[in-house]
Amino acid sequence: MDERDSCRVLIATQNTGKVREFRRLLSGIPTEFVGLGELEKVEAPEEDGATFLENAVIKARYYSRHFGEFALADDSGLVVDALDGAPGVRSARYGGDGLTDLDRLHLLLENLRDVPADERTARFECAVVVIDPADDKDFLHSLGTVEGRIIFEPRGVNGFGYDPIFVPLGETRTTAEMSADEKDALSHRGRAIRAIAPALSNLVSNP
Ligand code: IMP
The whole model's pTM is what? Predict the structure, then answer.
């Protein structure tokens, strides 16, 4: 079979929480999705872009070139107004190496300790990029955002990362207190994926 006939899509992230969300969100697209964990180990690229979109392009391009296959990557993070947009593109590295997701969440709460409820506005942002290795200059991309606020104490055990301290606008529960389907319906990643899904479906059907 020609490599182009198989046209499976790599989900270019090592984050198992994200792989789970991507698989759910892309389940309607008639192609095989493969997580990086199922492939030979490759060193991750440096994510030195200034924006979520730049970092998503870096990751999708890197893995698509390496494996010679379609690659879908996202870059996402939490943007907190009272912290001048931090942790932003550094969300996964906030506070430096060696911290767990839980450590980072507590560091964020500590840095917001004196910020009153009405100034704790924040949003999750997500850029999704799909790169075709045959033409990696012309890529698909979309952006998704969910507005909300940071609460004072973590609540809930679902999701990952900063979910236990983020309450979406118009909601009373954190995204860690929602079911997977509820989070997908309003999340930054859900929005970005739904926006790109028709073009991705078209791409894999007509490679
Ligand atoms: P990335 O892998 O560079 O995109 O890292 C994104 C980081 O942002 C994650 O490690 C989380 O800390 C945070 N993040 C992104 N999306 C979510 C989400 O849906 N819930 C909670 N945290 C998230």
Answer: 0.91
- DSSP calls for 146-205: EEEEE-SS---SSSSTTGGGEEETT-SS-GGGS-HHHHHHHSHHHHHHHHHHHHHHHHHH
Q: Per the residue annotation, which of 2, 74, 75, 84 is the catalytic one? A: 75
| Distances, alpha carbon 120 to alpha carbons 53, 92, 116, 165, 167, in Å | 25, 20, 7, 11, 10
What is the 206 CA–ligand 1 centroid distance (Å)? Answer: 32
* pLDDT tens by residue, 16-58: 878 888 888 898 898 999 999 889 999 999 999 999 999 999 9
Which run of H or E residues covers position 17?
A: helix 16-25
Classified as helix, coil or strand, 129 is strand
The alpha carbon of 5 and the centre of ligand 1 are apart by a number of angstroms equal to 33
Go through the domains of the chain in sequence order and give each one's CATH number.
8-205 (3.90.950.10)
| pLDDT tens digits along 98-144 | 999 999 999 999 999 999 999 999 999 999 999 998 877 778 999 99
